[in-house]
Amino acid sequence: MKTKELRSLQKEELLEKKKELSTELLNLRHQKVIRGLEKPHKIREIKRSVATINTLLRESEE
After folding, report:
1. Which of 13, 17, 53, 55 would be a feasible disulfide site paired with 9, CB 3.0-4.6 Å?
2. 51 exposure class (CB count in 10 Å sphere: 0-12, 13-18, 19+)
3. pTM surpassing 0.85?
């Protein structure tokens, strides 16, 4: 997701999105091990989105 889109979300929505992305990341990692992925770049995108969410959550604490 774009940072601009994530900044418009509330804290609760960010936490929910982070949970969804973490679950998706876990599933993609399992697929990668079992049979390989058609779009391996998807893992990187999700990891970056989770990191961005973590950053935004940290910024909102301050």
Report:
1. 13
2. exposed
3. yes
